[in-house]
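User: Predict the complex.
Assistant: Input components as received:
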Amino acid sequence: MFIALFSLTQPLLSAPKVIVNDDAGITSLDSSHLSQIFAMQIRKWPNGLAIEVFTLPSENELHREFVINRLHIQTHQLDRIWNRMLFTGTGKAPAVVNSQAEMVEMIRSTPGAIGYTSADYPTGSIVTLGDKE
Amino acid sequence: MMSKFSSVILGIIAAVMMAPATALELGSSSELHGFVSQAYLYSPDNPYAGTDSLDGSFKFREIGITGFTEVSPEFRLAGQVISRQRDESDDGDLRIDFLLADYLFYSDMGTTAGVRLGRVKNNVGFYNATRDIPSARPGFNVPDSIYFDSLRDSILSTDGINLYGSRLFQGNQLNWEVFAGRKSVESERLEYYIFGRPVSEGEFNDMSLYGLNLNFVPAAQRSLKLGFSLLDSGVDLDNPQSVSNAQMALFAAGPADIAMNAQNYVTGTRVDVLFAILSAQYSYRDWVITAEYMNLFSDLELQIAGVESDRSNTTEAYYLQVEWLPTLATSWFVRYEELYLNKDDRSGGNLLSPNDPYRGFGKGWSLGGKWMFYPRWTVTGQASFNEGTAWLPSYSGIEDYNVSKYWNYYVISLTFQF
């Protein structure tokens, strides 16, 4: 019984964490804002700085976990939104990085950047947004 | 014949096929993407966009190049050229699909608003804006019933102004768009749609367009997307035959000919069309269920040999489509759809189209799949089983073909996108 409960709560505990560049001046975001940011609809932080979105490749397992557990949609939904914007001239897809190390480096060095890593990945002093919905 | 420009485009695509990068990034703020798609289509029962398809044809090819540059976070320029060959119904000439300047004039965490000027794709239903993008279609085609070929050109894009925005309130997401402008139309396609044949004199040139598009994702169910589209358009037949010439021709042919060949005596035409489309899409795990309903009200002011008549008509269409995406690289779909050009005459008997008694309606099943067998390379297959020819693509000469009521087509295509 205890083990069953533990394994049920496990995915929630390990939901990927959202990391944000210092200059964004933000400390919390609910999931609806988060999903609109990754859908490239919200394009500026409250302080007016442009949002720069970074993701891992769509086929990456951590990306899938992030989209399902933090944005509450499916990865193919995001892929289709980005593809549609690109081929109708109405927007662009996020910048893709190939590893968590690269992700952390880009978030640290790019003003207004937002991305994610696994919950236990060391991100040092980077602003981490909690699991709050 | 492929123009010099087309060869350059193909050259760029060939270069990208060899290159390791996923897109051409031209500096930090510009990108170039594109696709090329080659299909083999076999339509044994009816000629699909030309008679070659009766024995199977490779004359189905789509090429596109798209690019954008961000001048600032608020201001961007974007454009796309497309070449589309569909045997005799589309010649493969390069066209500017869109070319626009986009200025985001308001943006905070809850609200955005902007304006686009130039040629902008029309968001009408879920698929109109991306109907020519192979990767954005569930199979070889977007649903034939709502996105049927006859009105494709007329509603594809608008040369004008497009205001857009989004609003997030209590977790609900609303995206809106209003647009106004004009669109030059391919006259012959419209003539076939209205008369079943080309008119003897005159052309449809320029259409006016006004549209509204809303998409809503409720906070309680983010897997559900609801859409509503309205599009109002109107077009006149320019430089039609004079009344005296038409009356003389009719006198020579005998008055009975007006019933058989009305298109030869047209002296004026004005068409007003109002599209309304309701859309819904629900995503659950690996499944995507999409349904749309279209109601198209058209008013036709017709002058034949100087005699005015006015007829209005309501066209109705709907489909239900289920997609299954078992892996990131594969998807399957099945779709059922119906289209009635005149919803009060579901057998289509009263259309101006004596050679094709089945053109008034369409019902059909389609099923197919896609497989990205290598990054950026996708093979797509589709089989469609139809009754009625409302969405059979027309071509010059189809009026002489004795079409069948029941007809199937089968397609396989190879697409490269970068």
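Residues 1-11 of chain A have pLDDT under 50 and may be disordered.
Let me know if you want any component modeled separately.
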